[in-house]
């Protein structure tokens, strides 16, 4: 196996390989393994978004978001949650996300990833990340946002966060309104913190992202797919977000 990111370690047994944060190993490793036992001893709650299956998993004082890997499109009819290869996607996503976090990018905090080997080169996988109470996706926010002043503040915040992500070398493989989290700030009077999630298939081309317009165009397409008539996310909203992106100082 490759060298893990700083602060992470491999945990292996006969059919399972985990990559977990060293300081959280005592509870993250059992939590990830608990899926195979039907989450016995844990409290679970389904979360919305993505392809379904994402869970909030709790036991005692420990909480994590666990996202099983599931296929989309035609492949989902054949394989659903089975993947092939010797470089599993959960480990690649963890490494890419943690690399961006260490560069200062506003990304979700990863706790660990697990691969359960069904046969050589054939696996199911999952990823555990930090749960932020009260967080909403940008799409959830857009459907209930207040007046123009609040919208402008949040949209500019998202635009500047996207610039930080790109300046850190991260090009999001699926930048859409459901992969942007707005987290409650420590001071309720301030705008929410912005965190990006779901870096499956992410690549780190270098210190600086060279294709920001591709990500921004993808974000516009996702907004129109979710809101074809532009009632919740208007063209002016997207223009405001992009203006903040281009006006943000390079890091």
Oligomerization state of this entry?
single chain
Distance between the termini: 33 Å
Tell me, briefly, the overall form.
globular
Annotation field: number of helices = 7
The computed structural class is alpha+beta
Fraction of residues in H or I helices: 25-40%
Q: Report the count of strand segments.
A: 11
Radius of gyration: 18 Å
Major β-sheet annotation = 8 strands, antiparallel
Q: What is the H-and-E element order?
A: EEHEEEHEHEEEHHEEHH
Estimated share of beta-strand residues: 15-25%
Low-pLDDT residue spans: none
Rounded average pLDDT: 89
How many domains? The number is 2
Give the topology:
Blueprint: E1 8-12, E2 16-21, H1 25-33, E3 43-46, E4 55-59, E5 62-68, H2 75-78, E6 83-84, H3 89-102, E7 110-119, E8 122-129, E9 136-137, H4 138-142, H5 148-167, E10 180-183, E11 193-196, H6 212-226, H7 235-247
Antiparallel strand pairs: 1-2, 2-7, 3-4, 4-5, 5-8, 6-8, 7-8, 9-10, 10-11
Helix pairs in contact: 5-7
